[in-house]
Every structure is written in C-alpha cells, then in structure tokens.
Write a structure and sequence with these properties.
lyase, alpha/beta
C-alpha cells in the first residue's frame, strides 16, 4: 500500500532542512549538530530507549545560557513549519482520501435529495440558514501577526511547487522565496515584547478577514450555488449568507479592565474602516470591468445621455467610500468630524441598492455571465459582512449591572437593590421599564466602575443596530440579570431591541437555565420585547472547569433539550449560542461532529458558535481552508435541521445520568476536595509563569487574590497541556466509564457509542485527549518541580489517566487510541520528537527560574519560547 503521508513528510523534511541551513549559517555547524543529536535521541527515547533519554537530558541540562533561546526557537519553529505542512496537506493536490474527505455539502445534498427531503424544503432552509461564527481573542494564539503573515506566504510557495508545469528556473525561484521566508521567520522574535491591547486583538481578527475570509466567502458561495443548481436547477439568491461573522474582540469586558467604552468605540470604527477599504478596492476593480454601454431603462433613467452608465454609478460609490474612509480616519484619531449623511456610506443599503441596480441591468441585457462575476462576489460579501465587517457583541458580568442599580437605588433612597429578593428585583425592574420618566438623575455622580458600565450602555444606544450583535451577560442565573440590562439600555436611550443573552456556565446554572428562561418568557412585557426570538448562550469552559467534561457535556445537552421545550411552548424561536473553546476541555473538537451531536430540535436552521484563539487561524487562516470550514458548518447545520439525530433511548439517558453523577464526584473529589491539589497544580505546571507571558489583553484571573475557582478556564487548561497531563479534558470521565463497566453496562455503552451521536462524539474527543497525554513527561515535571510530599497525588492522577485509557479502549474494542482516525494519530506522532525536547528543557528552565530571585533574560526568553513551542505542537491548547 502506498504511503499516503509521503507528500506531507516530504514537505516537513524539506522545510526542516531549510530551517537547518538557516541555523547553520547563523549559529554554526556545531550548534546544528547538537540540535539534530537531541532530535534523534528524542525519537529513540520515544521508542523506550532509556539510555537515549539520559543522553538527551544530559545535553539539555548542559546547554549554556546563550544557547537556550536559540535551541528552544529551533524546535518551536520546526513545529510551526510542521503545522503549516499539515495545514497545507489538507488543501493540497496530493491530499489523500484519509484526510480529504469528499465535499460535505455534495455528500449531504445526495442524502437529502435522495428521497428523504424534497428540494423545496431544502432550498427554503438553505436560504434562511443563520450560522453566526463569533471570533474571540483569547490568550491561546501564541503567534505574532507578522509571523502568521509569513506562514501564509510559505503555504503559497508550497502550492506553487505542486504545479507540474513549473520550469526548472521557476522552481528555483519558488525555492529561493521559501528559503527567504524561513530565514525571515527564524530571525523574527516570536515572543511579543508587550501584552497586546484589546484594539491589537481586534486588528488581528480583522486581518483574518482581509487575508482569507474576504476571498473565501464568495468562493464558497459560488461552489455551493453550483452544487445546488446541478441538483435542483435553482440558483441561490444574490443576498444569501448562510454564514456570517461577529466578534468579541474589543467588546468582551468580562473581567478585562482594559476593554472600556472608549476602546469599544474605536474598535467599531476600525471594523467599519476595514470594510470600507476592502469595498473600495473591489469597486475600483469593478470600474475597470464594467465598461459596457447597454443598460436597462431603470439604469438609463439615472443619466439618459451616459455612454458608461455602469461606471457612472460606480464612480459615485467609489467617492462615497473614499469619503467614508476619511471620516473614519478622523474618528480613530480622536476627532468628531461633521459630514452630510448622503456623502458617506452610512448603511448597507447605500452600497447594496446601487450594486443590485447594476446586477439587474446586466441580467436584463443578456449579460448574466458578467453579472455573476466580481459584481456578484461583492453583493455576497456585503450580505455576509455588511458595512461594519463584524457585528460586535458586548459581554459583561451580571454582577456589574447589579452594582449599577444597587448604587442608584441607594442614592435615590429606595433601599439596596443588591439585597432584595428576586421577585422584588423583577417587580422594580418591570415597573421602571414601563415608566416613561427617566430613572437616572442628571446630577448623580456614580463611582468609576458604575460610570464605565453606563458609558458602555450609552455607546450601545448610539450605534446603528447592524454594528452590534448580542449583549451577553456572563454568570447569569436569574431573570433579573436580563431585565437589569434592558433597563440600563432603556435609560441610556437605546431605541432598538438589542438581543440580551444570558450565559449559563456553571453546572448549577445549566441545570437551572430552562426554569430561568421559562420565568422570563412568562413575563408578558419581556415576551413582547423578544419579538419571537430568544437567544441563550451555553458555557462550555466554566462548566467543564466546575464539573469536569463528562458531567458538563450532559448538563449542556439536557439544558438545550429543556430550553427547546420551554421556547416551543411559549411560541418563541430559540437561538443557541455555544461558547466553545479550542481544546476538548472547553467544548472544542471537530465542529461538524459537534453540531450533529446536539439534541434534536436544538439546531433549527440557526446557531451561534465562538471560534477562539489559534483555532481561527487553523480553520480560516487560508482561503481554501476557510472554504472547507464554511462547507463543514453549512452542511452540519443543514443536516441537523433537516435530518435531526434520533431522541436518545430512556436507557441511554439513565446510563448517561449515572456517568455524569459518577464523573462529577470523581472530578470534584480531586479538584475541590484534595487539599494537595492546588499546591500540586502550581508546582507541576507553568501556571504561574503563564500569567507573565504577554499573550492576550485579559488578565489570567478574574480576581488577583483568587484560587483555582477564579482562574480563567483558558490558563487552567493551557497549564495542564504544557506538562502534557491534559487533566481538565479527561478527569472524571474514565472513572465513570470504569464504574459503568463494573456495573455490567458495557453492552449498553457500546450501543450508545454506536448509535447515539452525542455519546460517540464524547468518546471520540476523549480518545484524542488521551492520545495527546504523556504520563511519562508529566512524571518528569513532577520529579523536577514538585515537593516529594505531593508525589503521591501525581501518581494517583496518572493511575486515573491509565484507567480512563483502558476504559475507552474496552468500549471501542480497539488495540490503540484513534485507530479509526489515522490522520489524527499520524499528526500527533509526527510532532512528538520535537515537542518532547521542549518539555524537558521547559522543566529545567522552570526549576532554574523558581530557584533564582531574578532569572537571567536568556533563561526567561527561553522559557517563553518553550511554552510557545509546546503550544504550537499541541495545537488546540486553549
């Protein structure tokens, strides 16, 4: 059998050799020999050679200070290049059938139109599909933006080299460019000098759209249209937008003191500015293309004597876009320019209507082929991105809104809102929502924190509705949490009904979510406000941190089922917003599989999902990759709507409930009740050191003085992925499966794994995590960094890991993990010899930095590089 991974390995080997040549030129032959020796010893150590491991450790611990950072950088950059090669392999001409599955939309249309669903129902669902991908900047994207751009250029080179018609000279030119790029990458500092600001994060999000999604959206829709037209004879509408994009970058102020109303205002202007620039570029190109003279009566009526009627319209549009860019530049610089509304682009219709006029004219005059070129691309970009590029969500903690109203009621002599019962709060809020007089006195001087919340509400009120997505309330648990926001927005002069979205994130909150929404929808005033649509956000990160992945997953599933019933009964459509992270411990994993494993009825043609941190780059960083990801999302939501999964059997529910109860006890028994757990965690992982890395704009903790409970879910998981134990993504699950097997439930578990998408996905995710866990490396961290009196806990944790792996293998009937996903297994295998040395070096550097009061700059830099390298190797780290 042919080696299907040979092209991938060839690209990895070629780029590794170029990186080696670059290092040789910069640091000499002896350094390169040492790097290669350690790499070979790491491979031998993987195969169980103890003497190779000892030699490798001796070489690592003997590295002089001046070689620490270059060594970490060498392995780090090799892993980044391996990521690029792997990313490229999935869109390569040489991609194999194990990796590049057939087009998901093509497959789905075959199944749907094969008799199960009629074409009209499919077309109607497709036309109204509403998939909202919410880009969030979380501190998991290690790579700097300048490096990400160079990585994209490397992919372009790999793509060119696949062209069989390249001449020898052209091949040499591409190789020269590839060598130059890898040298640039090597000589660029990977670690940011300073922590990014929220505005920096927002600009990073915009760069993904500019470099990839701007092209991918019309490409995807053209491919989708062709497939639908082939099977139904119907063309998709020009304004179809099954996938749209929102953002939390610059709007998420939950626990981030650096996101202020001023910052959010700047980000909104920058989003609009980026869109205007991209539309201007498109319109300039369109002016060159649409040189035709023949036009319909509607277009000619604008200027009967025109010889270039299309260009006349486009030139006016071009000038308005230039004016818009000038206006927004002035705003970003802090000025408040005055402009006449009709001289700039103020709303989507200002671009859409003139372009649709041109489209109709071309079609009427027999030039549909021309109309369906760049002009249609621009119309479809407009349907997806609008003039604001990304709809910005606002997120704030429920407690902050409570503080505002409590401070106000105390000032007004009405008592302390914070101490009122829930029914009293609701009565007060509903009374004030119906009252026409202002509640907030002009003379009131609130505290700084309260003033900031009010400034944000006033900013929301001042924005056009299309610029904003939802107002998300984190740690929501009562109807008053939603009503409080609505009152503050009303008092700030908000004239349109923004979606106010409670986020249920702890286990208790998930269990109470349906009763909270039921209570809200029982309020006549509120049900009228919703206009028939209720959005609810399901938290994956904090629920898993609170209860472990198995119990959290079941609570999320049950909450969704109950919310569907509550909303159906109230005659309100439910839109579920899934707050997933990149890693399995935060609800991550393949999006297609995740959507199809949701409860029946919960994906009814619409869904919102967060795309976080480095996963944005892995899914959408290249136009062809982005087209694949868009196809996966569209086909999954279409399938979940038209061919929903079956209701789980009662026996499955009861078994899953027992698994959840057993797993939460096992999880909390360690994380909450084991007195040695926190000291072990802080010693055995680089949790403390991670807080010093300039990764994201948000602090690692909600409270500086807090413990594990205040630690954010991302650094919590990031830390455990660094020492390779991956604990948050499996703790509790294996123990529950083992207990079920001991009860004699194995035949039932096997049936659930085979026939229930929810359970199958859960087990598949566990397999992936277990395959990435490295108990021997975690044990080495323990030996070097953890006080001996805590070693017993480490041994217990590794025993729990082994027990879980054994339970999953018994359930799947496999001899090895991920036997049914060889591509994922090969991906892990390819990286290990490069991640392992970074782990061993990281352990050495952590030991050094913890002994010294002020570690040297080379040691600190090298430590940061090992953290970046391990994250690159593990990929979905947060």
């Amino acid at each position: 059998m042919a080696d299907v991974y040979a092209p991938l390995r060839a690209n990895v080997g070629m780029m590794g050799q170029i990186l080696g040549d670059t290092m040789r030129e910069h640091l000499g032959e002896a350094f390169l020999d040492k790097v290669e020796q350690i790499r070979q010893l790491a491979k031998q150590s993987r195969r169980g050679d103890e003497s190779a491991r000892e030699q490798m450790l001796a070489l690592l611990t003997a590295l002089p200070d001046e070689e620490l950072a270059p060594f970490a950088k060498a392995f780090n950059q090799f892993l980044n290049l391996a990521n690029i090669a792997e990313q490229f392999h999935t869109i390569s001409r040489n991609c194999d059938e194990l990796v590049c599955v057939p087009d998901p939309v093509e497959q789905l249309l075959g199944r749907i139109l094969g008799g199960k669903v009629d074409a009209d129902a499919m077309l109607e669902t497709l036309q109204t599909l509403d998939i909202d991908l919410v880009l969030t900047a979380h501190p998991t994207e290690i790579s700097r933006r300048t490096l990400i751009q160079k990585y994209s250029a490397v992919v372009d080179c790999l793509q060119e080299m696949e062209n069989p018609l390249l001449t020898e000279q052209e091949h040499k030119s591409v190789m020269l460019r590839l060598r130059q790029l890898i040298a640039q990458i090597w000589h660029t500092n990977e670690i940011r000098a300073e922590r990014p600001t929220p505005v920096d994060e927002a600009r990073w999000g915009l760069s993904t759209i500019e470099t990839s999604l701007w092209q991918a959206i019309p490409d995807f829709l053209r491919q989708l249209n062709d497939k639908v037209e082939e099977r139904t004879g119907v063309q998709l509408a020009t304004d179809i937008a099954p996938v749209r994009f929102s953002s939390w970058m610059g709007g998420d102020r939950d626990g981030n003191p650096f996101v202020t109303a001023k910052v959010t205002a700047e980000v909104l202007d920058r989003n609009r500015h980026a869109a205007a620039r991209l539309y201007l570029k498109d319109i300039v190109e369109l002016v060159n293309e649409l040189s035709m003279e023949q036009a319909n009566a509607e277009l000619m009526a604008l200027n009967p004597d025109s010889r270039e009627p299309y260009r006349d319209v486009l030139r006016g549009l071009r000038q308005k876009l230039r004016n818009t860019i000038d206006y927004l530049n002035a705003r970003i610089e802090g000025h408040q320019p005055e402009v006449s509304r009709d001289s700039i682009i103020w709303e989507d219709a200002d671009i859409r209507e003139p372009l649709q006029l041109l489209y109709r004219s071309l079609c009427d005059c027999g030039m549909r082929l021309i109309a369906n070129g760049l002009l249609l691309d621009i119309l479809r970009r407009l349907a997806c991105f609008g003039i604001h590029m990304l709809r910005l969500d606002i997120r704030q903690d429920a407690g902050r809104h409570c503080d505002v109203i409590a401070e106000l009621t105390r000032y007004l002599g009405m008592g302390d809102y914070a101490h009122w019962e829930e029914h009293e709060k609701q009565a007060f809020l509903l009374r004030e929502l119906a009252n026409r007089r202002p509640l907030i006195p002009v003379s009131w001087q609130p505290s700084d924190e309260v003033a900031e919340v009010l400034k944000t509400c006033r900013l929301v009120a001042s924005q056009p509705q299309q610029a904003l997505g939802s107002y998300v309330i984190s740690m929501a648990s009562h109807p008053s949490d939603v009503l409080a926001v609505l009152l503050l927005l009303k008092e700030s002069g908000c004239s349109y009904p923004i979606r106010v979205v409670p986020l249920f994130e702890t286990l208790d909150d998930l269990n109470q979510a349906a009763s909270c929404i039921q209570a809200l929808l029982d309020i006549d005033w509120y049900r009228g406000y919703t206009k028939g649509m209720q959005e609810v956000m399901i938290g994956y990160s904090d629920s898993a941190k609170d209860a472990g992945v198995m119990a959290a997953a079941w609570a999320q599933y049950c909450a969704q089922e109950q919310l569907v019933k509550v909303c159906r009964k109230a005659g309100v459509k439910l839109n579920l917003f899934h707050g997933r992270g990149g890693t399995i411990g935060r609800g991550g994993g393949p999006a297609h599989q995740a959507i199809l494993s949701q409860p029946p009825g919960s994906v009814d043609g619409r869904i919102r999902v967060t795309e976080q941190g480095e996963m944005i780059r892995f899914k959408f960083g290249l136009p062809k990759l982005a087209v694949q990801s868009l196809a996966l999302y569209t086909s999954a939501v279409l399938e979940a709507t038209l061919l929903p999964p079956p209701e789980p059997k009662q026996a499955w529910r009861e078994c899953m409930q027992r698994l959840a109860e057993d797993s939460v006890l096992a999880y909390r028994g360690i994380v909450r009740e084991e007195p040695q757990f926190v000291p072990y965690f802080r010693s055995a992982t680089p949790e403390v050191e991670l807080g010093k890395l300039p990764l994201g704009s948000r602090p690692a903790k909600r409270r500086v003085d807090g413990g594990i409970e205040s630690l954010r879910a991302i650094p919590w998981i990031f830390a455990w992925s660094q020492n390779r134990l991956m604990l948050p993504a499996w703790l509790g699950a294996g123990e529950a499966l083992k207990a079920a097997a001991d009860r004699g439930d194995m035949p039932l578990l096997k049936e659930m794994e085979r026939d229930w998408p929810f359970f199958n996905t859960r087990i598949s995710m566990l397999e992936m995590v277990y395959s990435k866990a490295e108990p021997n490396l975690a044990s080495y961290y323990e030996q070097c960094l953890v006080p001996s009196e805590l070693h017993g806990l480490g041994k217990k944790l590794r025993q729990r890991l082994a027990l879980g792996i054994e339970a999953v293998l018994e359930l799947t009937g496999s001899d090895s993990l991920m036997a049914h996903t060889p591509w994922n297994r090969e991906s892990v295998r390819l990286r290990n010899p490069y991640i392992d040395p970074l782990n061993f070096l990281q352990t050495e550097l952590l030991a050094r930095t913890r002994k010294e009061e002020t570690p040297s700059a080379p040691v600190q830099l090298a430590l940061m590089l090992t953290i970046a390298g391990v994250a690159a190797g593990m990929r979905n780290t947060g």
